[in-house]
Design a protein that fits this description.
- The chain is mainly α.
- The protein is about 75% helix and about 0% strand.
Length: about 270
């Protein structure tokens, strides 16, 4: 009779037990899932309140951008109420066209310096309108320093364009003041320093997750400067070359706009 020796089974290591391995894998998966959920919660926490509000509703930027109106001024409403709406518009446009033409003639009468100041005022107003459009987008994200940077670059670019070129016309006044002499002598170095300071300021204002938006609006500011400041600079250069080079082009634009409105008003409803 064969006697078989029973060899006791040694307890297997946990690594060789399939059941234990599956339990460990499950625990690790649960930990990974918990970690990912925590990371998502942190990202949601990092989002700005504006981003959370935009998820629920789409923002209409057209309401935040100033636009024109057909409202009749109160002091004219009393006298124009008897006219149809179409003729009210015509009379109002005619009155303000006459007033602006008289103002333009008065500024021309004052001379080149008055024309230069008027051009700079128009430049600032045009730049403000363009920047307000970008600011309507920028304000939604609660990002800092957009308007301050825009106006800073406007001042720096005006100093660069007008610093050296107007010295020939105002050289006597510049030589009388020590500060003006320094500004003229080191004009290009100061211009370069101003731009570098503005660029560093922009870099310091960058906000994480909004880099593309901020760089887009930074480019928007430079395009606005290129369009507005460059044109006003050439206009002022034409003024100092002779008033005829300013009066004739501006008069042509005024006459063209007035005649275009008159023809459109007279031929309303007709296909041209």
């Amino acid at each position: 009779m064969d006697v078989r020796r029973r060899i006791p089974v040694e307890p297997q290591d946990v690594k060789n037990d399939p059941g234990q391995i599956s339990e460990i894998d499950t625990d690790q998966d649960d930990r990974v899932a918990l970690d990912s959920d925590a990371a998502q919660d942190m990202e949601i926490r990092d989002e700005s309140e504006d981003d959370k509000s935009r998820k629920g509703a789409k923002t209409d930027l057209s309401k935040t951008i100033p636009s024109g109106t057909n409202k009749v001024p109160d002091f004219l409403q009393v006298y124009l109420s008897v006219l149809p709406l179409r003729w009210q518009n015509w009379v109002i446009r005619g009155i303000f066209t006459l007033l602006m033409s008289l103002f333009f003639a008065f500024v021309v009468y004052l001379g080149p310096l008055a024309l230069m100041i008027t051009t700079l005022c128009v430049q600032v107003k045009c730049f403000a309108e363009i920047i307000n459009i970008g600011y309507a987008v920028y304000r939604i994200h609660s990002l800092p320093w957009f308007r301050s940077l825009s106006w800073y670059f406007l001042i720096a670019s005006n100093y660069f364009f007008y610093g050296e070129n107007l010295v020939d016309y105002f050289g006597i006044a510049a030589n009388r003041t020590e500060l003006l002499r320094v500004l003229v002598k080191y004009h290009r170095f100061i211009s370069f320093s101003l731009y570098i300071v503005g660029f560093v300021w922009f870099v310091l204002s960058l906000v994480k997750k909004y880099y593309m938006k901020q760089f887009s609006l930074f480019a928007w500011t430079h395009i606005a400067l290129l369009i507005v400041v460059t044109q006003s600079y050439f206009i002022i250069q034409n003024i100092f070359e002779g008033l005829i080079w300013f009066i004739v082009p501006v008069s042509m634009i005024i006459i063209n706009d007035v005649c275009a409105y008159m023809v459109g008003f007279s031929l309303e409803g007709l296909l041209l």
